[in-house]
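Course assignment 3, question 2. Fill in each field.
Student: A.L.
Task: Predict the tertiary structure for the chain below.
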Amino acid sequence: VFGMIYMFVNMVMTSWIIGSITLLVVKNDEKNGEYRSNLQLLSEYANLHNFDKGLRKRLKTQLQLDFNNREVSDENVLQNFPRTLRRK
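Answer field:
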């Protein structure tokens, strides 16, 4: 009886760990997919309007900067603090 309960608990814990890891991978892949999609749209737009290579590089750099800093915006950081601190 103890062995069966132990195996059941072990199976539940293993399933939970695998599910959590899968969720993290899927969320990360969604963010990367959005970035790749925006990069592709930017490339198509640049080709359509014949942007030079320097401008294309600056636009891609700006897109990458926005993508990397999206979660570190002031609003996301300050939302956890009281309003009196947010105003300063």
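Instructor remarks: The chain has a mean pLDDT of 86. The radius of gyration is 23 Å.
Grade: pending
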